[in-house]
Design brief:
The protein has about 450 residues and is an alpha/beta fold. It is built from 16 helices and 14 strands. Helix 2 runs parallel beside helix 3 and helix 13 crosses helix 14.
C-alpha cells in the first residue's frame, strides 16, 4: 500500500496482518496527499485507515514546531480511543499524540500541548477552547481528519468545526470519514475540501452478516425481568445494554447492581456492572470504559453515547432494552458486536405498540429479525400473548412492501419521504451506486 518499512514494522508489532477493505482502499489514496471522503460504517478498521497515513507523513520533516495533524471526533471516548491507536502504531518513534476534550482539567492538557506534540485528537468544543486561549495554533498543520463527521453534525458541532477549519492552512490535506453522507456532511465537504475523491465502502454492510439478530415481544413492565432471564440464559462474555434515556440508564444500572449483589456470578466470568451516559463526570466515563475494555466490567448499560465509534473487541452481545428511535441508531448499536468480522448476537426488546418501528428497522437492514422466547417466561401480565402488529414480508422485496405500513400514519409518512442521495450525487460526482432504501 505504499507504507514505509518503519510503518510496516509498527503495523506488524500491533498484530495487524491483512488490511480491511476500508484500509486497502483509503490508505494508498491518502498517501498521495489528495483529499478523501470515505464512507464506511464502524467496525471496519476506519481508525487505522487514517492513523497510518498521518504517521507516514510524520516521518518526514515538518514546516515548523506546531502540530502537524489534527483529528476531530464527536465524543470524549472516541478521542481517547483514537489517541490510543496512535500511540500503539507510533510505538518506538518520537511522534507524540495528545487528546484534548471536555470534562478534564484544561491545565493538564495545556502542559501537554506545551511539549509540542505532532498530532492532536480532540472534540471540536475543547479544540476551539484551546485555540481561543492561544495554547493551540494550526499554522503548521498539514493534515486534518474529521472522524464520524455525520455524528459531529448531528450533535451540533458544525459551527465549531467550521471555525476550526477556517483557521487551518488552505494547503492542508483533509480526510473526512463518515458512516453516512447526508446533505449537511456533503455541504461541509464541498466547502472545505479540495475536489475530494469519494470512496464508498458502506454498500452491503447494513446486513451485518456475522451478527445474529433477534427480538422479544414484551410488555414494558416485564422488560427488566426479561433482561435478567436473558442474561442468565446467554451468559455473555461481555454485553452492552442500550437504553434510550439517561434516567433509564441509571435505573437499569442500579437494578442490575442490586441483582449482582443478590446473585453471585457462577459463570466464572466477572459480573461487574457499569453505566455510561452524557451526564456522568468525565472521570466516571473514562473509568467505566477502561474497566469495560480490560474485562473487569462484564455488563455496560449505556445510552447511544457509545453507539458510535467505540471499539471493544470482547463484546459478544448487544441488548436493545429500548428499541432505538432511529433506524441508523440500530445499525450503530448492533455494530458494537461482531467487530472486524467476529460473530456476535443482538437482541431487541419490542412492545406490541412498537411493531411498526421493528418493521422499519428490518426494511432498513433488508433482513428479518427472528422472534425469540424464553421457555416459561411470561412476557405479558394477566393477558394472552399477542404477536406484534408487523408487516408480513419475505426475505426479498422488503422495501417494496412499504405501502403495507399505510395503516400506521407515522410509518406511512416516513416511507413516503424521498430517498437520500449518495455522497457522490450530493457532491456532484456523477451517478451514484445503487443504495439501500431508507425507511426511517
Amino acid at each position: 500500500m505504499g507504507l514505509s518499512d518503519a510503518t510496516m514494522a509498527a503495523v506488524d508489532r500491533a498484530g495487524y496482518t491483512t488490511p480491511t477493505p476500508v484500509q486497502a482502499g483509503l490508505i494508498p489514496r491518502a498517501l498521495t496527499g489528495i483529499d478523501v471522503l470515505g464512507q464506511a460504517r464502524t467496525g471496519t478498521g476506519k481508525t487505522a485507515s487514517f492513523v497510518l497515513p498521518i504517521l507516514e507523513r510524520m516521518l518526514h520533516p515538518g514546516r515548523g514546531g506546531g502540530p502537524r495533524a489534527l483529528v476531530l471526533v464527536p465524543t470524549r471516548e472516541l478521542a481517547v480511543q483514537v489517541r490510543d491507536e496512535f500511540e500503539k502504531l507510533a510505538h518506538g518513534s518520537k511522534i507524540h499524540c495528545v487528546a484534548v476534550y471536555g470534562g478534564k482539567p484544561i491545565k493538564g492538557q495545556i502542559d501537554k500541548l506545551a511539549k509540542h506534540p505532532a498530532v492532536i485528537v480532540g472534540t471540536p468544543g475543547r479544540v476551539l477552547d484551546h485555540m481561543s486561549r492561544g495554547t493551540l495554533t494550526f499554522s503548521d498543520l498539514e493534515i486534518v481528519t474529521l472522524d464520524e463527521a455525520d455524528r459531529m453534525l448531528d450533535i451540533g458541532f458544525r459551527p465549531d468545526i467550521e471555525k476550526i477549519l477556517r483557521r487551518c492552512p488552505e494547503s492542508r490535506q483533509t480526510l473526512l470519514l463518515s458512516a453516512t453522507v447526508p446533505a449537511p456532511v456533503a455541504k461541509l465537504a464541498t466547502r472545505y475540501m479540495r475536489n475530494p475523491e469519494i470512496l464508498d465502502f458502506s454498500v452491503n454492510e447494513l446486513a451485518v452478516e456475522t451478527i445474529e439478530q433477534a427480538y422479544f415481544t414484551v410488555e414494558p413492565v416485564r422488560k427488566f425481568d426479561l433482561l435478567e432471564r436473558l442474561l442468565e440464559r446467554e451468559n455473555p462474555r461481555q454485553v452492552i445494554v442500550f437504553c434510550r434515556t439517561k434516567r433509564g440508564t441509571d435505573k437499569i444500572f442500579e437494578r442490575l447492581s442490586r441483582r449482582r449483589s443478590r446473585h453471585a456470578s457462577q459463570s466464572g466470568h466477572p459480573d461487574e456492572v457499569a453505566c455510561i451516559h452524557g451526564d456522568l463526570p468525565q472521570g466516571a466515563r473514562d473509568r467505566a470504559m477502561k474497566q469495560f475494555r480490560d474485562g473487569t466490567v462484564r455488563i455496560l448499560v449505556a445510552t447511544d453515547v457509545v453507539g458510535r465509534g467505540i471499539d471493544v473487541s470482547g463484546v459478544s452481545h448487544i441488548i436493545n432494552y429500548d428499541i432505538p428511535e432511529f433506524c441508523d441508531d440500530y445499525v450503530h448499536r448492533v455494530g458494537r458486536t461482531g467487530r472486524m468480522g467476529r460473530e456476535g448476537v443482538a437482541y431487541t426488546f419490542v412492545s406490541p405498540e412498537e411493531g411498526p418501528q421493528l418493521t422499519r428497522i428490518e426494511m432498513r437492514i433488508e433482513r428479518l429479525l427472528k422472534r425469540d422466547e424464553i421457555a416459561g417466561f411470561e412476557a405479558f401480565d394477566r393477558r394472552p400473548k399477542t404477536e406484534l402488529p408487523r408487516v408480513a414480508v419475505g426475505e426479498s422485496g422488503l422495501a417494496a412492501k412499504v405501502g403495507a405500513l399505510v395503516a400506521d400514519e407515522a410509518a406511512a409518512e416516513e416511507a413516503a419521504a424521498p430517498k437520500k442521495p449518495s455522497a457522490a450525487a450530493l457532491l456532484g460526482k456523477g451517478r451514484a451506486p445503487k443504495r439501500h432504501r431508507r425507511a426511517l
